Amino acid sequence: EVQLLESGGGLVQPGGSLRLSCAASAFTFGAYAMTWVRQAPGKGLEWVSTVSGHGATTYYADSVKGRFTISRDNSQNTLYLQMNSLRADDTAVYYCASSRGISYFDYWGQGTQVTVSS
Amino acid sequence: DIVMTQSPDSLAVALGERATINCKSSQNILHSSNDKNYLAWYQQKGGQPPRPLIYWASTRESGVPDRFSGSGSGTDFTLTISSLQAEDVAIYYCHQYYTIPVTFGQGTRLEIK
User: Fold this and answer.
1) Chain B residues with CB inside 8 Å of A47's CB?
2) Contact at 8 Å (CB) between A61 and A46?
3) Chain A residues whose beta carbon lies within 8 Å of the beta carbon of residue B93
4) Could you tell me if A110 lies within 8 Å of chain B, comparing CB atoms?
5) Does residue A108 sit at the B interface (CB-CB below 8 Å)?
6) Helices and strands (H, E) in chain A, number of each type
7) Are A106 and B52 inside 8 Å of each other by CB?
């Protein structure tokens, strides 16, 4: 059974940094594009960033461009999101999700909570 | 960016009755090269991640009950639950993956009447 397990969330002060991880198991990790989607409290889904299967191509939402960096280690079946200069409006549950290239998100992790507050 | 607008925002349907959720995209999401609509539907229950139900606008994900169906093309799409069950109470989202940034509808909350 495919599993995506996020970690690294927590409480951080405005301007601080966090690094999220998403460990994948039971599927051919390198064959999938990987994405971070977030959901603010009581709100809908917001796409954050996507990385291609080989890791060479990345995409970012305007709201995080220049502050967040997505990366992956295919040898470790792990996806990352380095988040710098965090703001209160970055507070959300962050999900990692997989897709077979330009496609829908077929597998989702359970999410990790990020709270930005002083 | 492509804006996805769902209607209604919330919906109450009696058990066993039909539920219909609409999704309209601000641009065409039918790709002429492969004749596919780049549209998916997800179900999200409280405290859980979204679950894919439908992709390519009308293809049911493995394991999804056949009471769920998707239809539409171009800019107008519909998710139909033919006979509402208690376990279908959730928020439903449409999602376009035609172009980056991919975008989601605002969600439709489905409840039992």
Assistant:
1) 101-104
2) yes
3) 44-45
4) yes
5) yes
6) 0, 11
7) yes
CA atoms of B79 and B93, how far apart (whole Å): 10
Residue A27 is predicted with a pLDDT of 86
For residue B3, pLDDT over 90 is answered with: yes
Range list of β-strands (E), B8-58: 10-13, 19-25, 30-31, 36-37, 39-44, 51-55
Distance CA B13, CA B20 (A): 9
Question: What sign has the CA pseudo-torsion A89, A95, A99, A101?
Answer: positive
Q: What is the CA radius of gyration of chain A?
A: 13
Distance from CA of A46 to the nearest CA of B (A): 7
Pairing of strands A92-99, B19-25: unpaired
Q: How far is B23 from chain A (nearest CA, A)?
A: 15
A23-52 residues touching B, CB cutoff 8 A: 35, 44-47, 50
* A83 within 8 A of A9, measured Cβ to Cβ: no
How far lies B82's CA from each of A4, A20, A52, B17, B87, in Å?
32, 40, 37, 7, 14
At residue B34, what is the residue type? N
CB B100 to CB A50 under 8 A?
A: yes
Residue ranges in chain A whose pLDDT is less than 50: none
Which tens digit of pLDDT belongs to each residue from A10-38? 999 999 999 999 999 988 999 999 999 99
